[in-house]
What we know:
The chain has about 210 residues and is mainly α.
Amino acid sequence: MSDEKRLATLRRKVQRRNHPPKGSSIKVDPIRELSAIMTIKTQLQNQPRNLCLFILGINTAYRAGELLSLDIGDVADLKVGDIIDLKQSKTDEYRMATLNGVSYSAIQKWLAAHPRPRPSSPLFPSQRGGSIGVPRVHQLVKGWCKEIELKGNYGSHTLRKTWGYHQRIQHNTPVALLMRAYGHASEAQTLDYLGIQPEEIRDLYLKQELGK
C-alpha cells in the first residue's frame, strides 16, 4: 500500500472515532441553571445577532438548522403571541412555536443592528454571505458555556434541550406536550432526549417512604 493510501486510511479511521455511528448522535446537555442562562445573556448584550440566536434557541423547540432557515421577512412583523411556523429539517413537516416577550425583544434589537435589513436576507447572516451554519452554532454554544465554566458537553442541540428541560423541571409541563412540541415519536424519546428521566425516577423513591 502506498504512503498516500495509508494516510487516507488513517484519516478515515480518525474521522470514524470523532463522529457517532450512522443513526446515532453525540448527546449534549441542556443549560440546567437559570443563573447560567442569565450570565450568558448578559455576556451577549453587545452581540445582538448571537443574543437573538441564543434567546430564540432556548425559547422554542426548534433545531439550530430550522432557526437558521429564517429570513428577516419571516419575523420582522411578528408581535408577542404570534406564531412562527417552520418546516422540521428531519420530517419536512411544519411545527409551530409562539413568540414570547423575551424573543420579540431580542429580534427587535437584532433587526435594528442587522447589516442587511431586507426581507429576503437571512436572519442570522455569516460574514461570507448567506446564513451561518449549524457547525458555527455548535462552536458558539460550546464557547458561551466554556466561558462561564459550565461543566458538561454542549453544542447546538443544547439550546432546544434547555427549553424542554426547564419546561419540565420549572413548570412540570406534561411529557406528552413536550413530545408534540419536539415532534418526537414517543414520550420515552423525549425523556431520553432531555436527560431528565433518571432524575425523575430517583425522585419517585425519595418522595414516598412507605412504612415510615
